[in-house]
Amino acid sequence: MEKVRRVERMVALTKLLVDSPQELIPLNYFCDFFGIAKSTLSEDLACVKDSLQHFSLGTLETVAGASGGVRFIPYRSGERANAVLKEVQRRLEEPDRIIPGGFLYMSDILYDWHIASRLGEIIMSRFADTEPDYIMTVETKGIPLAVMVARAFNKPLVIARRDSKVTEGSSISINYVTGSSRRIQTMSLTKRAVPPQSKVLLIDDFMKAGGTANGMRELVNEMGGVVVGIGVLVATASPKPKLVDDYKALLVLNNVDEVIKQIDVEPVYDKV
Amino acid sequence: MEKVRRVERMVALTKLLVDSPQELIPLNYFCDFFGIAKSTLSEDLACVKDSLQHFSLGTLETVAGASGGVRFIPYRSGERANAVLKEVQRRLEEPDRIIPGGFLYMSDILYDWHIASRLGEIIMSRFADTEPDYIMTVETKGIPLAVMVARAFNKPLVIARRDSKVTEGSSISINYVTGSSRRIQTMSLTKRAVPPQSKVLLIDDFMKAGGTANGMRELVNEMGGVVVGIGVLVATASPKPKLVDDYKALLVLNNVDEVIKQIDVEPVYDKV
Description:
2 copies of one chain form a homodimer.
Chain A: H1 6-18, H2 27-34, H3 38-54, E1 59-63, E2 69-73, H4 79-92, E3 98-99, E4 103-104, H5 107-110, H6 113-127, E5 134-138, H7 143-153, E6 157-160, E7 171-177, E8 184-190, E9 199-207, H8 211-222, E10 226-236, E11 247-257, E12 262-267
Helix pairs in contact in A: 4-6, 6-7
């Protein structure tokens, strides 16, 4: 490969690292890609790391040894996280989101990959210490958010189904009672999805009484896994207590007033 | 903000652009963020663009005028696309994927955000000329892929449901016949999701007879939209013709032999 200027190499290096969050990339990969020595690469990586940290855009982590390499760790906390939450609050409080019955239309926000990817990074930052092996959700509306959490953690996604499909192979099903409407529902997961002893982080878009999260936990337990955290985008303020108490919500829905068309949503901000 | 070296600024600039594919970011945003003049920024952007193109990592597009700005356009075509498809082929041909009935277990690949994001870029590159306003899929397994296609296009995602949920507001439902099993199914979409005259790109993970894609098209037509393309990850070689003929598959499933446990998958490569 022809010689390129250092600054051009740094641009490409940044792109490749940022594109694969949390993925450990061997140093040799970059040495070969750019045709440079390891010492040169180390200088380049130090500079990329400084720059990312300087602008609060994430950091790099280097792992020494034969199976080592370098990985990009995105983070979105403090003021950058709070600005995202404030924007989501503003959109959730738009009066025409109210659906008869006091529900909120949220799909346009949930299916906006741009917001979802930022929310995924916030959830990753808040659950980083739980070190999950799998990110799990139940179909359907929470999937895009869970995809982005899985991306930020660089861990596989697991999706529980409301029915069991023949194309998934043998599966485990549980019945659970939804906390709010007291209906019995079924949730199933293919047996291949979660190996025993796995640490699983549960993700959902909305929590009212916590019945769905409770059902997901039961399913994980059935498979011999352990739930290490429950992250939801929006949780309602009431009922309280919920069927699960160890969850973290990014926003709390205090009230929906159908008569005066007013929605009261409160972000759970990072301390700054 | 304190003065930073140019190379550090370029790293941060690259990160911010790459993080928001296809999003038009005003030049002023970067001038303010880095505290630099527009002329300096223009030089920086030219260098980022050169570097991305040099390494085939994408490009930048600058739009002049008051509402102008700069956007990062990811692409993955030619050899870089073909390497991804070859890897997916290798994984799909692992013998233990066969599920009784001749189905293939694909969820681990579909729910691997790393592969999904690369496949999303390939689909975007192949459908770039269709200029869709919306990316649409039907629940459940195709959603992560569709999220990544939406990300590569920077367009909103629309997810059709197999039932109609009260939390989505008023919706349109259609009945359709699945092409392979000849069963009648229901598919529904909230009325807010697709405005009339919208150009919609359909995405699905698997196509056998094309009944589901045909149902999605009918749903889009009901809402006054237009389907501009159909992209699927894997299509079976038979039956042929299918209920839709204007689809593009990334891989073709020629045969699943349950007896000798052999799977024959063929990538549809880019010309290089």
